[in-house]
C-alpha cells in the first residue's frame, strides 16, 4: 500500500518532521538549538547540502532548503528527489508517518517533496516470502497555512480557469496520480507467468470498474473477424490468445466531442520470435507492455479525477514467441486497414500491434491519437533513460503542449523529424510496406511505418529508455517506472 497524502491543521508534535524553507532566517523557533542552526547554515551555504537531517532518537527532523532556480520544472524535480531521499531514511527507520511543515507557503515545492516521498516508497515485493523489506511509510501529512486557507477536500475534480490548479484540487489530484502510477508499475513488474494478454485485459476491466470507465475486451475471434493481421500474426507463435482492450471515459460534461485516443503497445513478453533475442537482452522483456500499462493507468487517473475530457484507450496485447506457426522473415501479412506488410524481422513486432490499433482508432473519429511503446533500441541509444522520442504528423501544436506537460512532471520528450524521405526506407519490393528499415534512425522509420495507418493528428512516443530501469533512479525506482502516466494526465488536465 502506498502512502496517502493528507492535510493537517494541527500544530506539529514531536514526530518525524520535514521543515521546508527557502531562507535560513525562516527556520521556525523552538525546533533547533543555536548550534543546530549554525550546523544547518554550514551545510546549506558551504557544503551545498539541501537536505539536513537530525536524529532525535524517537523521531527525525529534516530541513529541506529550496534554492533559487529559474527553471521551474528542474526545481520541482529536485524537490521530488529530496522526497525520495527522505523516504529511504524513513522506511529504514520503520516509520509509518511523517509531516511536512510548509513554513513559507511553498505549496508547489512541498507537494513535489510529498510526491517523491510517496513514489520513492514503491517496491514490488509481491512474490517475496520474506516481508521484512516492505516499506512502512503509510501517511504523509502536510501542515500548510497557505494550503489550509483555501482547501476544500470534497472537491476532487479540478476545474481551473488557468493552468494553475486550485488548492482545493491539489491533494486529491496528487493521491490519484500516485495510485495510478503504482498500478502501472505493478502491471509492468508482473511476470509473464502471471500476466498473459487475457489476464491483462481482466486487470484493465477491474480498473475500469473502480474508476467508472467502460471497458470492452476483443478476444481472438473478434480480432479475426476484424482481420487484424498484425496482432494475429505476432500471436501465431504463442499458445496464449491475443486481446485488444478498449477503455473509454466519456463524461456527460466532456469539453471535447471528438476523443483523445491513447494507444499502448502490449507485448506481454518479447522473445523476438523466430529472430530470437541474443544473450541477456531477453531478461526484462516483460516490460514490453509498458505502453499498454501506461494507457490503462492514465485513463484510470483521468476517470478517478472526473476530468471533463472524452478519452479512449486502445491496448493490443499478445506475447511474441517462436512457436510452431510463428511468423518468419519473408512472410506477408495483411493488416486491419488492408495494407500488406513484408516481415523482415520478427523482433520488430510491436509496430504490427500498434498499426492495427491505430487503424482501429479511426472508428472513434479522434481529435488526436497518441501512442506509447517500448519500440526501438535506437531511442535508447539516442536518449538513454532520460527521455522519450516524440514524433508527430499533423499535430505540431499538440506535441508542443505535450512537451510542456512532460517537462512539468520531468517526463521529458525530444522531438525527431518525420521527413518524407524516411518513408522510402520502409517500402517493400513485394508488399506495401516492410516492418523494419535500416539500422540508422530506427525510431524515425518505425514512426513512418506507423504513420501509414493513421488519418488524423498523430503523436508517436517511443518510451523504450525510461519505461523500465535495471538500477534504482531516485523516486522512479527500479523496474517499471510508470513513465507517461503523469505526463499524459497533466496534458489532459490542461485541456480541462
Amino acid at each position: 500500500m502506498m502512502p496517502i497524502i493528507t492535510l493537517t491543521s494541527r500544530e506539529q508534535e514531536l514526530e518525524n518532521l520535514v521543515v521546508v524553507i527557502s531562507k535560513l532566517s525562516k527556520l521556525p523557533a523552538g525546533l533547533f538549538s543555536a548550534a543546530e542552526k549554525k550546523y544547518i547554515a554550514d551545510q546549506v551555504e558551504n557544503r551545498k547540502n539541501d537536505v539536513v537531517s537530525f536524529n532525535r532518537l524517537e523521531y527525525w527532523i529534516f530541513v529541506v532548503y529550496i534554492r533559487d532556480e529559474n527553471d521551474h520544472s528542474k526545481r520541482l524535480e529536485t524537490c521530488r528527489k529530496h522526497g525520495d531521499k527522505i523516504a529511504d531514511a524513513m522506511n529504514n527507520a520503520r516509520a509509518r508517518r511523517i509531516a511536512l511543515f510548509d513554513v513559507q507557503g511553498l505549496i508547489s515545492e512541498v507537494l513535489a517533496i510529498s510526491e517523491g516521498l510517496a513514489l520513492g516508497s514503491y517496491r514490488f515485493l509481491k512474490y517475496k516470502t520474506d516481508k521484512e523489506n516492505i516499506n512502512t511509510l503509510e501517511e504523509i501529512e502536510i501542515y500548510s497555512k497557505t494550503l489550509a486557507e483555501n482547501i476544500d477536500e470534497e472537491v476532487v475534480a479540478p476545474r481551473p480557469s488557468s493552468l494553475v490548479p486550485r488548492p482545493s484540487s491539489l491533494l486529491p489530484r496528487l493521491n490519484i496520480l500516485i495510485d495510478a502510477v503504482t498500478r502501472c508499475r505493478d502491471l509492468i513488474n508482473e511476470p509473464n507467468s502471471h500476466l498473459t494478454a487475457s489476464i491483462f485485459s481482466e486487470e484493465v476491466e477491474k480498473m475500469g470498474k473502480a474508476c467508472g470507465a467502460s471497458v470492452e475486451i476483443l478476444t481472438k475471434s473478434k480480432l479475426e473477424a476484424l482481420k487484424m493481421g498484425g496482432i494475429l500474426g505476432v500471436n501465431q507463435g504463442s499458445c496464449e490468445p491475443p486481446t485488444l482492450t478498449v477503455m473509454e471515459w466519456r463524461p456527460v460534461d466532456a469539453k471535447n466531442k471528438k476523443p483523445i485516443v491513447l494507444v499502448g503497445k502490449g507485448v506481454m513478453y518479447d522473445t523476438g520470435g523466430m529472430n530470437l533475442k541474443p544473450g541477456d537482452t531477453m531478461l526484462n522483456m516483460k516490460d514490453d507492455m509498458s505502453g499498454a500499462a501506461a494507457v490503462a493507468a492514465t485513463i484510470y487517473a483521468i476517470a478517478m479525477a472526473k476530468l471533463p475530457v472524452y478519452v479512449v484507450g486502445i491496448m493490443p496485447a499478445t506475447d511474441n514467441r517462436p512457436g510452431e506457426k510463428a511468423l518468419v522473415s519473408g512472410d506477408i501479412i495483411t493488416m486491419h486497414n488492408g495494407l500488406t506488410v513484408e516481415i523482415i524481422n520478427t523482433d520488430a513486432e510491436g509496430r504490427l500491434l500498434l498499426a492495427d490499433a491505430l487503424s482501429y482508432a479511426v472508428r472513434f473519429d479522434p481529435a488526436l491519437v497518441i501512442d506509447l511503446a517500448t519500440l526501438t533500441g535506437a531511442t535508447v541509444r539516442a536518449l538513454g533513460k532520460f527521455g522519450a522520442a516524440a514524433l508527430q504528423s499533423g499535430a505540431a501544436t499538440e506535441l508542443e503542449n505535450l512537451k510542456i506537460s512532460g517537462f512539468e512532471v520531468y517526463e521529458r520528450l525530444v522531438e525527431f523529424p518525420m521527413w518524407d524521405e524516411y518513408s522510402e526506407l520502409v517500402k517493400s519490393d513485394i508488399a506495401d510496406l516492410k516492418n523494419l528499415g535500416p539500422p540508422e534512425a530506427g525510431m524515425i522509420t518505425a514512426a513512418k511505418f506507423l504513420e501509414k495507418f493513421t488519418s488524423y493528428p498523430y503523436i508517436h512516443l517511443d518510451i523504450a529508455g525510461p519505461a523500465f530501469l535495471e538500477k534504482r533512479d531516485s523516486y522512479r525506482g527500479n523496474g517499471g517506472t510508470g513513465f507517461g502516466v503523469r505526463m499524459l494526465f497533466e496534458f489532459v488536465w490542461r485541456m480541462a
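The domain at 180-495 is CATH 3.40.630.10 (Aminopeptidase). The radius of gyration is 24 Å.
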